[in-house]
Specification:
The structure holds two protein chains of two kinds.
Chain A: H1 4-20, H2 23-40, H3 50-59, H4 61-95, H5 97-113, H6 119-126, H7 130-155, H8 158-166, H9 171-209, H10 214-223, H11 227-260
Helix pairs in contact in A: 3-4, 3-11, 4-5, 4-7, 4-9, 4-10, 5-7, 6-7, 7-9, 8-9, 9-10, 9-11, 10-11
Chain B: H1 12-28, H2 35-58, H3 68-81, H4 83-115, H5 117-132, H6 139-146, H7 150-174, H8 178-186, H9 191-229, H10 237-246, H11 250-283
Helix pairs in contact in B: 3-11, 4-7, 4-9, 5-7, 6-7, 7-9, 8-9, 9-10, 9-11, 10-11
Classes of the chains: A mainly alpha, B mainly alpha.
């Protein structure tokens, strides 16, 4: 048990520690990188120093921002379609054993294939461009969202659903008020990993078949040996991925678990 | 994101329910009991028939969709030519080598990081960050550094696998209940004994989770790497489908995709999952 005094003094110290300690490894890496560049002085096209990479986004901010925007738009489009379809089909499969039996084996197979392996076929179907990238994002995220939703729905205790039914609720009411909220924690974790896979898929798909976006841009920059832009873009991909995951979805997930989570049966 | 500790967050009773549902899931996936094999093959038959009907009705151009028979024919062709066995060999060898390096270096490194709590908590964000920069994003940089070579593909695979492997090995050590260590210590065990008898076996289940995740990611990285670098390194399965697309041979693209799926299922179901399950039974659930 912490005393009141502890409760007041601790947060600041731990907060500081929480923010500062993780910075150390990054600083260490930055130091190694900077000193390696200083000592060996490699050509700029092979390994530019951290200062040049840090300046790269500002030097051509217009290109940089427009490519980020293109990638994010595609990710959001594909993800919205994947989330909607994944949840709807997942709930249906969770409730109906026949649908589950039909889709289960297909899903197992498809998720082994998902994302990148579809790129060549998607290029043939949609041609290079946004449509194809959106399809790949959908493909990479759908199966994860679907199978998590299905698992979540199956884990909602039957007692709760039956309870509602005996009290005269309609099937739709039960689904909307018990099944979906009850499986929310699982749905959220499916959405979270789906978004992560989707983001990787955007980059891979743009690399092969798009004329804009971060994935396209870093490959284009290779032709010009603009290593500063390449590294800056790669790190940006990581930052965007982290921000989406940690600050957006992890928070949402936590809130969902607090609000609807642990629908376990009674002791 | 996807590098996550094994689902130990669920409470005891919850875990039971999860296991039960997973058991059920496994049952209807046709993974237990020979009788259900038919049931899990049926959906594929339905899809193939539907595909055939769509193809027969619409007769789409060859570069959009071909019949299942054509795909099968392509598959046979690649086998007869000898490209397929050679490509499978190349791709699996790449994945195998990447796995060996990533595990051989990553697991001990993860253990080492896990030994100290403050070290572990300080490197965690960095591991997460570099895991979020997917290996594919480094492909252009790797090509500049190593050229269109085998090294580039290997570097991408190892990079992609390393983070889940290191992360989970570290988490595995961190989540071993402290009292096990303390118990050994009070009985006179030294640091070496504790590492060998507590930390290493105690983290095996988590290490396996990391390995399975890592190989899954590595597999995708391999395909992407072969798309881009394949021509100059003698091919591979990723190259097969990518190259077939360039030539407009959709039959071969689809044959390659089906093969990729089947191969992954074999690796995952017949090797990785059984090993993971065994690890869990033998060393897992330290609660």
């Amino acid at each position: 048990m912490t005393s009141i005094a502890d409760a007041y003094t601790e947060p600041l110290a731990t907060k500081l520690k929480r923010w500062l300690v993780p910075v150390i490894p990054f600083l260490l890496l930055l130091g190694i990188w900077a000193s390696a560049v200083a000592i060996y002085d490699p050509p700029i096209g092979t390994l530019p120093g951290p200062d040049l990479v840090g300046r790269a986004p500002f030097a051509n901010s217009e290109q940089y921002l427009s490519n980020i925007w293109a990638s994010i738009q595609r990710l959001v489009a594909g993800f919205v379609v994947a989330a909607t379809s994944g949840i709807v089909v997942g709930v249906a499969a969770g409730l109906n054993k026949r649908i589950a039996e039909f889709l289960g084996p297909l899903t197992t197979f498809m998720s082994a294939l998902s994302g990148i392996a579809w790129i060549p076929l998607a290029v043939a179907w949609f041609g290079p461009g946004t449509g194809m990238v959106v399809f790949i994002v959908w493909n990479a995220a759908f199966f994860l969202i679907f199978s998590n939703t299905m698992l979540g729905v199956r884990l909602v205790p039957k007692v709760l659903e039956n309870g509602m039914l005996t009290m005269g609720a309609s099937r739709l009411q039960v689904i909307l008020q018990v099944t979906i909220p009850g499986s929310m924690p699982y749905i959220m974790s499916g959405l979270r990993s789906g978004l992560g896979f989707g983001w990787r898929a955007v980059i891979a798909a743009e690399l092969v078949g798009a004329a804009s976006g971060l994935g396209y841009w870093i490959f284009e920059q290779r032709d010009f040996s603009r290593m500063d832009n390449i590294i800056a873009a790669a790190l940006t991909i990581g930052v965007i991925g982290m921000v989406m995951d940690r600050w957006l979805l992890a928070r949402l997930e936590r809130r969902t678990i607090e609000r609807w989570g642990l629908v376990g049966t009674d002791e | 994101m996807t590098v996550r500790p094994p689902p130990t967050t669920a409470t005891g009773k919850d875990l039971g329910a999860v296991r039960a549902a997973q058991g059920e899931t496994r049952a209807f996936l046709g993974l237990s009991g020979a009788g259900s094999v038919f049931r899990s093959l049926l959906p594929f038959a339905v899809v193939i028939v539907a595909w055939w009907i769509i193809w027969a009705v619409f007769r789409p151009p060859e570069i959009i969709l071909v019949s299942p028979a054509r795909v099968f024919q392509s598959l046979i062709e690649t086998v007869v030519e000898g490209t397929l066995p050679a490509y499978i060999n190349l791709s699996l060898a790449r994945l195998g080598f990447g796995t060996l390096v990533a595990v051989g270096l990553g697991v001990p490194f993860g253990w080492l990081l896990g030994l100290d709590e403050s070290v572990a908590s300080s490197v965690e964000p960095m591991l997460r960050f570099f895991n979020a920069v997917s290996g594919i994003a480094w492909l252009p940089a790797m090509i500049i550094w190593f050229g269109f070579t085998e090294t580039t593909v290997q570097a991408i695979i190892i990079y992609t696998m390393a983070f889940p492997v290191v992360f989970n090995a570290m988490i595995g050590v961190r989540t071993i209940p402290r009292r096990y260590r303390d118990a050994c210590r009070t009985m006179g065990a030294g640091n070496f004994r504790i590492i060998r008898d507590v930390y290493m076996p105690g983290s095996f289940p988590s290490v396996m989770t990391g390995l399975r995740l890592g190989i899954g990611f590595g597999w995708r990285a391999l395909i992407a790497g072969e798309f881009v670098v394949g021509t100059s390194i003698g091919g591979g399965l990723g190259f097969l489908i990518f190259d077939a697309r360039t030539q407009g041979d959709i039959g071969r693209v689809m044959a390659g995709m089906i093969l990729l799926g089947v191969l992954w299922l074999i690796v995952d179901r017949l090797i990785l999952r059984p090993v993971e399950e065994y690890t869990n039974q033998r060393w897992g659930a330290v609660q």
